Amino acid sequence: MSNNIIITFPDGSTKSLKKGVSGFELANQISKSLAKEAVAIKIDGKICDLSLPLNNDCKVVIIKKENDEALDIIRHDCAHVMAEAVQSLYPGTQVTIGPSIENGFYYDFARKEPFTIADLPKIEKKMHEIINKGEQFTREVWSRDEAIKFFKDKGEEYKVELIEDLNADEEITIYKQGEWLDLCRGPHMMSTKQIGKGFKLMKVAGAYWRGDSNNAMLTRIYGTAWRNEKELESHLLQIEEAEKRDHRKLGKEMDLFHFQEEAPGAVFWHPKGWRLFQSLISYMRERQDKAGYVETNTPDMMDKSLWETSGHWDKFSEMMFRTEAKDEKIYAIKPMNCPGAVEIFKQGLKSYRDLPFLLSEFGKVHRYEPSGALHGLMRVRAFTQDDAHIFCTEDQITEESKTVCDLILSIYKDFGFDNVRIKFSDRPEKRVGDDAVWDKAEAALKQAMETTGLEYTLNPGEGAFYGPKLEFVLRDAIGRDWQCGTLQVDLNLPGRLGATYIAEDGQKKTPVMLHRALFGSLERFTGILIEHYAGHLPFWLSPLQIVVATITSDSDNYAFEVKDQLTKNGLVVEADIRNEKIGYKIREHSNAKVPVILAVGKKEADEQTVSVRRLGSQQTSTIKLDELIKDLKKESLSPIN
RNA sequence: GCCGCGUUAGCUCAUUUGGUAGAGCAGUUGAUUUGUAAUCAUCAGGUGGUCAGUUCGAUUCCGACACGCGGCACCA
Question: What's the pTM?
Answer without folding.
Answer: 0.95
